[in-house]
Amino acid sequence: MSFDAVIVGAGILGSSVAYFASENGLKVAVIEKEKEPGVHSTYRNTGVVHRPFYLNPDRRKASAFAAARSYPFLKMFVKEKGLYWNQLGTLEVSTDDQGAGVIRNYERWARENGMEESEYLILDEKEISAIEPSVKGKLAFLSKTDAVVNFKQISEKMMELSEGRGARVFYGCRTVSVYPDGEIVYSCDGSEKKISGRSVIVVAGGETFNLAVTNGLKGYAQLHFRGDYWKLSEEKGKFFRRNIYTVPRFPNFPFLDPHIIKRHTGGTEIGPNAFLVPGPYDYEGTFSKILKNVLGSGEGPFPIKAKLFTDVEFMKLVFADWRISLFKSSMIKKVSEFATGITSGDAIGRGISGIRHNIIDKNGFLSEPFFYIKGRVLFVLNYNSPGATGSPWYASVILTILSKRGILNANYKNLVISDESETFSVKVLE
After folding, report:
1. Cis peptide upstream of residue 180 (ω within 30 degrees of 0)
2. Least buried of 16, 34, 293, 390, by fewest C-beta within 10 Å?
3. 223 vs 211, 226, 256, 285, 296, CA distance in Å?
């Protein structure tokens, strides 16, 4: 079987690629190892459609473009299809003077990243208390247009529409090998099959790295960090009206501090941490996973990881966040720095844990997603938050780059990209 585009992975990014490719008349196939779309990171993220106020345009230009350009499309798509959309906003709080300086930067970044002044406010201590009586802080940034959605629901609808346009979807099939000429070997129920594409887009989350390595990617390693959450009681959850974030305490690393999230289910959760785990699907277990990390974390050459594991600040973060996963009281203590009245008794059970797959090189963490192209195959690596928000834009960039290189021939319409020059903000390796 031969197709214009074969997509490996039916998470929110793979679903977005399938949606735009099929909408533009391309013959599409999708290979997904699970029985349905959006099972992993798509389902296990916060569900927040982020506005780009917190993205430094000097360091995270691609992510800023992605969040800014994708927001109008997601809002239109969700409302047009009758899916869940709750524009409740996000309040990001600083608890000290250093954090207050970051909040002031957000105002400039929001403006540079295309947000309208009507979308946000800078709030002082009294103003914070006025809109969120159970939140304390010195200064805060209120993003009025942040929304909560069900990204799995969006992924499912995109795949449904893609199939309606003729896309072939192979669920329950794991990709075994990908070759530069566009051939793919995949396995369904133990039986190996082959498929070929004029182009191949590999967006398989934590499994993308190993497939890229077998196609010649060198100089990188991959680590996995699980974010654990606790469910707040319904009574305590009512104390918070919107998503509450805080300025990250480790700005040199791509992780967020614990925050308060309003889920599309109506529940409220606190978390996450950045719990280093050995593999891409280690959603459960704490002490056992800590022990396994000693034997080897992630994938790729150890020398690339060695420098990071001797970084005092990084190891401080690792040990602190392991403690947060082991002890509920540690999570409560962190959240209590910006939220009043939460006790261990208010955390009634474990919430949804998700895993981010971070690519590192000899200099440490990479701040942005990047593409690796080998022949007719494009691999998407380091695709993390706000990846779900930015998936329509990244899907548009992927199709545009493949067309510019002559790998695909299509006259695209309705892509979520303002200008082809935006594609230069994404790093491409060959």
Report:
1. no
2. 34
3. 15, 10, 16, 17, 10
Structure token digits, residue 191: 């039986």
Report the candidate in 241, 251, 412 with the shortest Cα–Cα distance to residue 339. Answer: 241
DSSP secondary-structure letter at 335? Answer: H
Beta 2-8 vs 191-202: how paired, if at all? Answer: parallel
- Residues 205/33, Cβ–Cβ less than 8 Å: no
Helix, strand, coil percent content, the chain, rounded in steps of 5: 35, 25, 35
pTM (whole model) above 0.85: yes
Domain range for 166:
1-83+149-219+368-430
> Would residue 101 count as lying in a domain?
no
Residues, the chain:
430
**22 and 217 in contact (C-beta within 8 Å)?**
no
Neighbours of 137 (CB within 10 A): 26
* Number of alpha helices (DSSP H) and beta strands (DSSP E) in the chain: 12, 23
Confidence of residue 287 (pLDDT cuts 50, 70, 90): confident
End-to-end CA distance of the chain: 27
What is the domain-level CATH number for residue 184?
3.50.50.60
Region class of 179: left (phi > 0), else alpha (psi between -120 and 50), else beta: beta
**DSSP designation for 415:** -
- Distance between CA atoms of 376 and 392, rounded to whole angstroms? 21
Residue 340 lies in a domain: no
User: Do residues 340 and 26 touch, judged by C-beta distance below 8 A?
Assistant: no
- pLDDT surpassing 60 at residue 26: yes
> Which tokens go with 232?
């707040």
